[in-house]
Amino acid sequence: MRQMVMVGFLQAQNCTTLASAWRHPDARSDFTTPAYYQRIGQILEEGKFQMAFFDDRLAMPDIYGGNPAEVVANGVRVVKIDPVATMLAMGFGTRYLGIGSTASTTYYEPFDVARRFQTVDHMLGGRAAWNVVTSVNDAEAHNMGREVHMEHDLRYDRADEFMEIVLSCWDGWEDGALIVNKTTGEFADPRKVHRLEYRGKFLNSAGTFTVPRSPQGHPVVIQAGSSDRGKIFSARWAETVFVGYSDIEEGKKQYAEFKTEVARLGRDPDLTTVNTIAYPVVAETRAEAEDKMAVIDSLYKEVDGLSLLSEALNFDFKTKGMDEAFSKEELAGMSGMQAMRDRVMRVIGRPPTVRDFLEVTRRGRPREAIVGSGKDIADRMEHWFTERACDGYVIAGTHMPGSFEDFVRFVVPELQRRGLYRKEYTGATLRENLGLPIPQRNAWRLPQAAE
Ligand SMILES: Cc1cc2nc3c(=O)[nH]c(=O)nc-3n(C[C@H](O)[C@H](O)[C@H](O)COP(=O)(O)O)c2cc1C
């Protein structure tokens, strides 16, 4: 029977994806310690999650107001420690949990990303994953010494080349290349170690990769683009994708389109799982869950929404009055998450104002929170899953680690009882637990381009 994928949506930060999470009375504040991440990892493992996933952005949201004062004072996603180092801390406190992190194709070098993630994959015994992003805004560009963030579609064209280099690096060492025989003096079989010579339009790389294959071959590739260009990139490269479908009908439509595109490229659509974001707020009874939700709602401040909109759309929302409409030029100039801008324009149907952006996107608030008992949440999750609006969920927390404690206590047993969700891990590696085969050398090349 088809079973759900479950991913914990994590941040190596002072808050969850909800900027107000640090204000929650039950939130832990030791977010720079290994103990914090290990505790979260252990809860997810108790709930048999396939993966914990750390998102990332290479800047705090200080585009808002043109300086960091307000976001720092209010703790709006301002602490972001390195997620790849954090993967290791969590990994050393868990045994079966897959652990993924974001890394940017726009601001890192492909050899560096290939080596770092392949190393982590070794250190975690084949439990690592990489979320490929092209990054979003100018604040990231400035931190990384650039003037502006590269244009939207162009950075995906460049990211295609980035993927070819990373995957070629990971193909550099074949299985069985390492011999390490002290008696014969043979260390590795040179016929099984391949040199890369890559010259692209944007990127070059020449050399021999330095990290052998890991227990699962190489890290699992995740992608979460939601623009038209981003979705094409996902269909081409992702082994599992993260999405934020707004309702079940939209989900069913987009899910089907995505799987069709994957198949069109000659890839197996059943091997690329689609996981949609869910914000469960759960308790023993629905009434208790509603009380919890009221506490969570009360923690929101307008600066959360405005600074996160500025970050996502690469535009300083403080330069506009609350009810002032954006001009055509301003809308066209938004270069970050264009799918978000497009949705607001579609829903509002006239030039949107700042207030429209806040209301439609609900940025900084628990969007589409599912509030209820374990049974309520399981009903909703089962419905989307069986109707093929998703293959699994990226479970976002309203505060840490309480959200995951509640989910594992109230929802997981209910899903398991219904046979929709695993009771045990299938294997030791992330690929085994996602039902993905170990990738063969060159398997990532499209059929017509295969060597
Ligand atoms: C569950 C989930 C996690 C994401 N994590 C990140 C992240 O860590 N960093 C990031 O820049 N974008 C993240 N995104 C956003 C997308 O990866 C992508 O950057 C964004 O949608 C902009 O690209 P697009 O214009 O192609 O949609 C995430 C999206 C989802 C649904």
Question: Can you tell me about this structure?
Answer:
This protein is of the alpha/beta class and 451 residues long. The protein folds into two domains: 5-287 and 367-449, TIM Barrel (Alpha-Beta Barrel); 301-364, no CATH class. 39% of the residues lie in helices and 15% in strands. The chain has helices at 34-46, 69-74, 83-91, 110-123, 138-143, 152-170, 228-237, 248-264, 286-298, 302-313, 328-333, 338-348, 354-361, 374-386, 402-417, 430-434; strands spanning 5-11, 51-55, 98-104, 128-133, 178-181, 186-188, 195-199, 204-208, 220-223, 240-243, 273-282, 369-372, 392-396. The strands form three sheets. The chain has an eight-stranded parallel β-barrel, surrounded by six helices. α7 crosses α8 (248-264), α12 crosses α13 (354-361) and α14 packs across α15. The chain binds flavin mononucleotide. Residues 9, 55-57, 102, 131, 133, 135-136, 224-227, 230, 242-244, 277, 337-339, 394 line the site of flavin mononucleotide. Flavin mononucleotide binds at residues 9, 55-57, 102, 131, 133, 135-136, 224-227, 230, 242-244, 277, 337-339, 394.
